[in-house]
Amino acid sequence: MAQQHLDVDGLRLEEVDRSLDDERKQELERLWGFEWSFSGISTFAHLEYKKCLTTPDELFDIGILGVPFDTAVSYRPGARFGPKAIRSASARQTSFRGFNTRAGINPYTSFARIIDCGDIPVTPLSNAVALEQMTAAYTELLNRKPVSSSLIHPKIISLGGDHSIALAALRALQKVYNQPIAVLHFDAHLDTWHPAKYPDPWASEQAQFNHGSMFWLASNEGLIINGSSVHAGLRTRLSGNDFEDYEDDDRQGFLRISADDIDDLRPQGVVKKIMERIGTEVPVYLSIDIDVLDPGVAPGTGTPEPGGWTMRELIRILRGIEGLNVVGADVVEVSPSYDGAGEETALSASQIIFEMLTSIVKRGLSDMGRVAEIKESRKNDEL
Hints:
Its cofactor is Mn(2+). This protein is of the alpha/beta class. It has helices at residues 2-32, 82-89, 127-142, 165-177, 214-220, 244-251, 261-278, 311-320, 344-382, and strands at 62-67, 114-119, 155-160, 182-186, 229-234, 254-258, 283-289, 325-332.
């Protein structure tokens, strides 16, 4: 009996110690858990960091994922350093000052668990292997169970990297959702080029995969919904002597909105054309090449084209399409070695991601309301 009494007392002491430990941890967190925008390690917006690919039990609703890959570019390299630059430029974003006045929510403190998932360790030595790596990584993460019951799968926002990473994301999304995905593509360039359009007497199968052909490849693999996808911000030159590139693009089912169209349509008109084309129910991959912006605004990119949109115009459009059913997104082609001392391009990219997060979370709140209404309706029917 004496031993039993001792054991009980020991357990009580252990519980008291544990309670004191918890109180101590809470006090330490209160005193030292806060970070100023200029302090702490560089995660996106000071989000909690988890190496998601090595922690299979780590659940999240939205994961920020770096994809430092740029060996599929046709002009200036350097986008492999994009994820680091975007994270650094996001330092002024914090959960304690993240309320978005246009949406009426703070995406960082709403229902969604948003974390920085680190980077995919993509090889720079073989594009074929890199594509396999990226596809496997996306598939692994998208197959996780989300924290929120309003989501079917977690959502990944990728920090590129060159634009070819979108092919890996679309392959994984098609596999996980078991259907093709609509693409909303903001870019100066089509990126639906037939691989043969690149003049190369030393062409290879691996060379077909590049940052200008990935949507052509995705379309031919049946990954993209034909007839519900959009290019926005186009202003590139075409190959050859005619409109054959546009004819190829037409066969892949994209609506084209040029950079010049904003002069007549205004941002609201661009939004209207996008929403009429895609709607609010189709699953959408939102892909933003930073070169959709004018190089005067965003010089740090690999294939700059004069005459692009301003940041304000792009933000107005992004805010207008918040009703889309976005299942994945990226911001790509940030090449910090060409950026200015003020990190203009990386700052723009980090703000774009904030707008993406806001819209995804706001759509999630709307879906949660609809789920609640359906449950209540079913409950009443049963009564």
